[in-house]
Structure formats: structure tokens, C-alpha cells
């Protein structure tokens, strides 16, 4: 059996997938999503995020170019 190396290590998303950074979602209603996917959200887009067994409605507030992809900051629309 081959050993896992950084290039073949298991990752939660495929290379063109999305990563959702939601550590601050419950505390301050903020989430960051980044991806190299060509499908980018737009300012004002509404998203439904599940975190810690709860559902959150968030709206995209900011977009930025990041390492060949993009990053979006979104904030909870209602508590």
C-alpha cells in the first residue's frame, strides 16, 4: 500500500471544489468560502450553510481574487 504524501493526501474537497471556513459563524455570523472553481458567487447572493447541526442563511458581502481562485465573505442575514 502506498503512503500518503502531501500531493496524494486525502482532502475534503476535490481540486475544483469549495472550502467553507465557518469557525466564526455561530459567534459572529460570518463565513468565508474559497475555491478555484470558475463559478463565482456575486455580491448579494444568498447561500444556505450548515454548521454544527444548524442552518444559516448568509449573503455574500465581499469577493477577492486568491491564488488562482476566489474568496467570498458572507454574513448571516438573520439570527
Secondary-structure topology with pairs:
Layout: E1 18-21, H1 25-28, E2 30-35, E3 46-51, E4 54-66, E5 69-76
Antiparallel strand pairs: 1-2, 2-5, 3-4, 4-5
Structural class: mainly beta
The fraction of residues assigned to DSSP E strands is over 45%
What is the overall number of helices? 1
How much is the radius of gyration in Å? 14 Å
- Straight-line distance between termini: 49 Å
Average per-residue pLDDT, rounded, comes to 84
How many β-strand runs?
5
Shape: globular
**Element order: H for helix, E for strand:** EHEEEE
- Largest sheet, spatial ordering of strands: 1-2-5-4-3
Count of the separate structural domains: 1
Which keywords apply here?
79 residues, mainly beta, 5-stranded antiparallel sheet, 1 helix
Question: How is this structure best summarized?
Answer:
With 79 residues, the chain is mainly β.
Describe the protein.
5% of the residues lie in helices and 47% in strands. The chain has 79 residues and is mostly beta strands. The chain has one domain (18-76). It has a 5-stranded antiparallel sheet with strand order 1-2-5-4-3. A hairpin with a 2-residue loop joins strand 3 and strand 4. The longest helix is centred in the middle third of the chain and has 4 residues, at 25-28. It is globular. The termini are far apart.
Amino acid at each position: 500500500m502506498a503512503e500518503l504524501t502531501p500531493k496524494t493526501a486525502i482532502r475534503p474537497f476535490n481540486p475544483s471544489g469549495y472550502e467553507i471556513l465557518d469557525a466564526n459563524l455561530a459567534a459572529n455570523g460570518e463565513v468565508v468560502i474559497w475555491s478555484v472553481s470558475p463559478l463565482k458567487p456575486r455580491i448579494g447572493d444568498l447561500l444556505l450553510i450548515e454548521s454544527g447541526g444548524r442552518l444559516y442563511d448568509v449573503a455574500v458581502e465581499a469577493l477577492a481574487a486568491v491564488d488562482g481562485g476566489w474568496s467570498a465573505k458572507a454574513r448571516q442575514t438573520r439570527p
